[in-house]
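Marked as duplicate of an earlier ticket. Keeping the data here for the record.
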Amino acid sequence: MAEDNADLAAETARNYYNTDDVDGFYAHAWGGEDIHMGVYADARETVDLASRRTVERLAAKVADALGPGSTMLDMGAGYGGAARRLAEQYGCHVMALNISEVQNRRHRELNSERGLDDLIEVVTGSFHDVPAPDGTFDVVWSQDALCHSGDRPTALREAIRVLKPGGHLVFTDLLAADDTPDDLLRPLTERLRITALATPGFYSEQLRALHLTHVDFEDLSDHLLTHYEHLIDQVRHPAPGLVAAVSPAYLDRLGTSLPRVAAACRNGHLKWGIFHGH
């Protein structure tokens, strides 16, 4: 049953991210490099700047494990913004594993433009079945992708399986606050085509069961409302590129669903932050 759920979730995520509307929204409203939540030093900052700061925040936790010759797996790499930044900064080799062929095509194009083909391998596949031997990577990294998993315990076991002894696991994910009723999160789960969100308590329990040491969670939930308010503003006052990239019906749906997600953030029903262990 768990395998069936994982396969169904992978296919749903693939179909979701391969659609023109979704691809257009992330490429134009979210910046087209990083499609994850941002850390804002100032509420007036742009989404793409705040998203880059998130990468820097994660990288600081694993910097000692990265360098020329080191290896990293990015689970759910999207357009590859983090992979490129880390490959350029540290000289590490990255396997960028991602379910969407549409995103992967753009990822490869951007890598070629930056001369990073030798450092980044873009692989189409699921993080429920990582195509790598045990103990391959110094760092396993993921940003806001595990919410699409239909079997998160398996995804986490795969992450640990491919880590070298002493390697680092670092990830973010969009979370439900513990004991939040599912119906309050339906606008978000329906938009992302997922069944439910994990909670901080769930991940903490899972990571302890997998025998990671020094596990910590940096709670960055305060940044969520700012992030979604930026997205709402972009949808209400869309730039020409966004208008050309998505359908009017999709833009209308975002205009309804995003304010509901912002309300969930405002009421403390959504959480977000960085898990790190080794």
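See parent ticket for discussion. The chain has a mean pLDDT of 93.
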